[in-house]
Design a protein that fits this description.
This protein is α+β, with helices and mostly antiparallel strands and 461 residues long. The protein has helices at residues 9-15, 23-29, 50-53, 74-87, 154-171, 197-200, 237-247, 251-269, 274-278, 319-333, 336-351, 353-356, 360-374, 393-396, 437-448, and strands at 32-35, 38-42, 61-68, 93-97, 102-106, 114-115, 134-139, 142-148, 229-236, 281-289, 303-306, 309-311, 381-389, 399-405, 414-421, 424-431, 454-457. The protein is 34% helix and 22% strand. The longest helix is centred in the middle third of the chain and has 19 residues, at 251-269.
């Protein structure tokens, strides 16, 4: 995710005027409740639509994993998981259906470490009674966490994985040093950890974002059901950062431009197709971590999105032109007030009385319709940069690499996830498409810029 520069969070919130930290918003943002049946959690604003649109293919699972320096000791990993799951109790929940809304009910049974599979983020049903909304998988030297986006975003998921690794290594004899993401596992979770930060910072009177036209989608036959191909390119981080600096852009801007150029090339090849001609807008969704603008300790979702785009009616652009447009677009769009418009649109709908009183049995089809119109329909792809992952020194020495894989999308077919660890940059393409053309074009652009790329794939040729 894009991370803004250092911000004075308090000043930022005050600058939003009426959108400051109102007492009403703070009360609404606390997601823990109690009634005659016990504790439960509401879904945050980003998650509320997901139960209606998930499917066997579109599982809404994303994955974060770490490869360590020794084969996994399963008893230690299970013990670590149980302790961390108790501390992240707001993740140990199952999805339930109420009369008006879905909600999350605490799951009493402890999660169990599962064997990893060749295709990640598959074979998952969040609606299955008794199912947790995350799972921990292990294979040889890799520990992987797969989270339903209904629970958290990349930041919250990474915090969970870091705490799991720290506890696992502690049980194996290596103590962690200080790290702001490592929690006291004996402490009770603070309500701020599971607040709905969208509701907390809801700017009631802000205008909504401008209308966006539907975007072009790459046409490709799908892989067999249950298959999710992951192609990962590994680059020297220092060289990638130096190239971005030489071009006067950030690393995320450079990669987004490479993505748009790759989709542009495919669009030009398909331009005789009616669908390609009709949809002339290429747009890439770039998630923005809102914690960098507005202070919250929440481990729930708190990300928004911007969509740098290109209108193919104006003709193709050279890479330098695409890069310039992406650079200025992201600098223009990613600031507090501009991002607040998205919070205003997303939260206001759920607060409308007309929406709240619709029974869930009728609300779910409405949500599917709205998502089909406002969701993946508006973008050609997703590029999410989680940034640089850090671990305390004693633990860092025992971790070879981290990987990040986006949730699968049968509409977009391919999504791109990025993170860096130590001296390496990892770019992972999660794909449901048989075609590998987008990956080839993207990585070819990086090589043409002089960046060496080492490529690997989870599925056989």
């Amino acid at each position: 995710m894009i991370q803004a520069g250092d911000e004075d969070h308090a000043n930022q919130a005050r600058n939003w005027g009426r959108a400051g930290i109102a007492r009403r918003n703070q009360r609404l943002s606390m997601m823990g409740f109690r009634d005659e049946t016990g504790s439960w959690y509401g879904l945050d604003n980003a998650a509320v639509i997901m139960p209606a649109v998930t499917s066997a293919v579109s599982t809404y699972l994303f994955r974060l994993s770490a490869t360590i320096d020794e084969p996994i000791h399963l008893p230690s990993l299970q013990a670590a998981l149980e302790r961390v799951a108790r501390r992240f109790s707001y993740f140990s929940v199952e999805l339930r259906s109420g009369f008006f809304w879905h909600y999350l009910e605490p799951h009493e049974a402890m999660p169990r470490v599962e064997a990893d599979a060749r295709s990640p983020c598959q074979d998952f049903d969040m609606h299955k009674r008794g199912s947790l909304l995350f799972r921990v998988r292990a294979r040889e030297r890799t520990i992987a966490c797969e989270f339903a986006h209904i629970l958290t975003d990349g930041t919250g998921g990474l915090r969970f994985l870091k705490n799991l690794l720290a506890e696992y290594f502690r049980l194996r004899g290596t103590e962690a040093g200080p790290d702001p993401d490592l929690l006291d596992l004996d402490a009770e979770p603070a309500p701020e950890e599971y607040e709905d930060a969208y509701n907390r910072y809801f700017p009631e009177h802000y205008p909504h974002p401008d209308y966006e036209r539907p975007a072009y989608h790459i046409a490709s036959p799908s892989l067999p059901r249950g298959s999710y191909r992951v192609i990962t390119g590994e680059l020297p981080l220092a060289e990638a950062l130096a190239k971005a600096k030489e071009l006067g852009v950030t690393l995320t801007e450079l990669l987004t431009a490479a993505y748009i150029e790759a989709v542009q090339a495919i669009w030009l090849e398909e331009k005789t197709r009616e669908r390609a001609v009709r949809r002339h807008r290429i747009a890439i969704e770039v998630p923005v971590n809102m914690r960098k603008f507005l202070a919250t300790k929440s481990n729930k979702n708190f990300s928004l999105f911007v969509h740098p785009e290109q209108d193919m009616r104006l003709g193709p652009r050279e890479f330098s032109g695409i890069l310039s447009r992406v650079h200025h677009y992201l600098r223009y769009e990613i600031d507090g007030p501009s991002m607040a418009r998205h919070i205003s649109r997303n939260v206001s709908g759920g607060r409308m009385l007309a929406i709240r009183v619709i029974p869930l049995v009728l609300k779910s089809p409405l949500m599917r319709f709205l998502y089909a119109y406002y969701g993946d329909n508006k973008v050609s792809g997703v590029l999410s940069n989680l940034g640089s992952v850090s671990m305390p020194g004693p633990l860092a020495a025992r971790i070879e690499r981290f990987d990040f894989i986006h949730a699968p999308s049968p509409v977009l077919k391919v999504k791109v996830s990025v993170l860096s660890w130590r001296d390496s940059l990892y770019i992972s393409f999660g794909s449901l498409a048989t075609s590998r053309e987008l990956e080839r074009l993207f990585l070819t652009r990086l090589r043409r810029l002089g960046l060496p790329v080492k490529v690997e794939c989870n599925l056989e040729e």
